[in-house]
């Protein structure tokens, strides 16, 4: 390059141009050559490197190299060739102009720092995409860890850029930065809180991508679709998106329905309110009629026999039904619903099945169905509940019971 430098300088002086002007023209000529070298080397490096990556990715069985290409890692790495050429040759171009050399050298070094960060970013994004394809890591907050590394790399990059601009040592810079740590903590408070929270969430397995969570404070009720450094994104069942601060998951209460999903059943807990005035003892004739209901035929035969034996042994006067032991229409109906639920194909038989009578209310007697559907999908779950209560409500009149209905009939003021 030195020969070319002298060549251009000698050429311009031979043309009768003054040495001062020839020096400037020589610098411009060398700068043009350097720019052309940069463009050509960048073009060749991208062609060779990108094509080599494509060829390797095509022959390789792994998808990691395909993701490197997708995130343009070879494209950014190819820029290193012209950068190295520039660092090597630009001192020759500006040898006669040291005032230009220093600021241009700083700009080139800053560009190198940014280029390194972009290469690191593309590689990290590749790892992020790659890890998300792994079943074991698919529900982990990989985004949070990648963002932390990127944030750290940008902080370090900005620090090195400041060192390049100010011409101070890197140790002196970070010593000064340590003194300003209180300000940094204030600026990056949410980021630090989010980072700590994401680690706790991952270690304690509090929440995963795909979990159904409910958090009333933020109006969230749906599936977790992303966990990153600052927020957790929840897609609600109405398809809206709610963003929850990551640190809120360790400071506020929320409900995670993962346990329900893994249990093999989804709880049904709903009541039919029976009018208290419709509850009464059953006569022998009524019991015989109810024996036609197949689900409770065996039960009625057994219970009627036991009750009759008890009453006979104890000389109970059955001229009044209240005397001795008796069956009630509510008790028999409760047994019928129990048998119906136990024989329902959509109910998980390995989990609790219970038909219980709750405390009396001003409206009547709540008869609660407590069971678990074997299908946890929302649409099917609601269908199962509707099917159970359609049948149960339709069965109520067969037992001479009445369901409570709030009457809105009232006299209008004259």
Automatic annotation (TrEMBL):
Look up keyword NADP and say if it applies. no
InterPro entries in the record, alphabetically? LSM_dom_sf (IPR010920), MscS_beta-dom_sf (IPR023408), MscS_channel_2nd (IPR006685), YbdG (IPR030192)
Q: Where are the transmembrane segments?
A: 24-45, 76-94, 106-124, 145-164, 170-188
Q: Where in the cell is it found?
A: Cell inner membrane
Q: Which GO terms describe its molecular function?
A: mechanosensitive monoatomic ion channel activity
> Residues in domain Mechanosensitive ion channel MscS?
190-258
GO CC list: plasma membrane
User: What is the annotated signal peptide range for this record?
Assistant: none
Chief place of localization: membrane
Query: Gene3D superfamilies annotated for this entry?
Result: 2.30.30.60
**Membrane topology type, per the record?**
Multi-pass membrane protein
Keywords on record = Cell inner membrane, Cell membrane, Membrane, Stress response, Transmembrane, Transmembrane helix
* Record-level GO BP terms: cellular response to osmotic stress
Superkingdom of origin organism = Bacteria
Cross-referenced PANTHER family: MINICONDUCTANCE MECHANOSENSITIVE CHANNEL YBDG (PTHR30414:SF0)
Recorded protein name is Mechanosensing system component YbdG
- From what organism does this protein derive? Mangrovimonas spongiae
């Amino acid at each position: 390059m030195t020969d070319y430098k002298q060549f251009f300088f000698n050429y311009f002086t031979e043309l009768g141009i003054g040495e001062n002007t020839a020096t400037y023209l020589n610098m411009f000529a060398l700068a043009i050559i350097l720019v052309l070298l940069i463009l050509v080397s960048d073009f060749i490096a991208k062609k060779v490197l990108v094509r080599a990556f494509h060829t390797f990715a095509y022959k390789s069985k792994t998808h990691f190299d395909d993701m490197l290409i997708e995130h343009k890692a070879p494209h950014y790495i190819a820029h290193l060739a012209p950068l190295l050429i520039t660092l090597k040759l630009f001192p020759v171009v500006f040898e006669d102009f040291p005032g230009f050399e220093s600021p241009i050298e700083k700009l080139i070094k800053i560009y190198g720092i940014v280029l390194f960060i972009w290469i690191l970013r593309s590689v990290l994004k590749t790892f992020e995409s790659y890890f998300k394809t792994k079943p074991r890591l698919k529900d982990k907050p990989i985004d949070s860890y990648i963002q932390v590394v990127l944030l750290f790399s940008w902080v370090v990059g900005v620090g090195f850029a400041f060192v390049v601009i100010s011409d101070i040592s890197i140790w002196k810079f970070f010593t000064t930065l340590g003194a300003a740590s209180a300000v940094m903590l204030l600026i990056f408070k949410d980021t630090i809180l989010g980072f700590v929270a994401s680690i706790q969430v991952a270690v304690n397995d509090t929440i995963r991508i795909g979990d159904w969570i409910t958090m009333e404070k933020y109006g969230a009720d749906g599936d977790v679709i992303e966990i990153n450094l600052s927020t957790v994104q929840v897609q609600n069942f109405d398809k809206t998106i709610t963003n929850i601060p990551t640190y809120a998951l360790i400071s506020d209460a929320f409900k995670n329905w993962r346990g329900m999903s893994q249990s093999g059943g989804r709880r049904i807990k709903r009541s039919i309110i029976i009018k208290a005035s419709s509850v009464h003892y059953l006569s022998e004739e009524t019991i015989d009629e109810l024996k036609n209901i197949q689900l409770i035929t065996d039960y009625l035969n057994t219970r009627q026999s036991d009750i009759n034996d008890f009453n006979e042994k104890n000389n109970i006067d059955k001229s009044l039904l209240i005397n001795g032991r008796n069956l009630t229409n509510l008790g028999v109906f409760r047994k019928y619903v129990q048998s119906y639920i136990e024989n329902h194909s959509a109910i998980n038989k390995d989990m609790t099945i219970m038909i219980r009578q709750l405390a009396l209310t001003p409206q009547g007697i709540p008869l609660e169905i407590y069971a678990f559907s074997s299908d946890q999908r929302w649409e099917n779950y609601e269908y199962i509940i509707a099917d159970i209560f359609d049948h149960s409500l339709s069965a109520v009149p067969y037992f001479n019971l009445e369901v409570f209905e709030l009457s809105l009939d009232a006299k209008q003021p004259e």
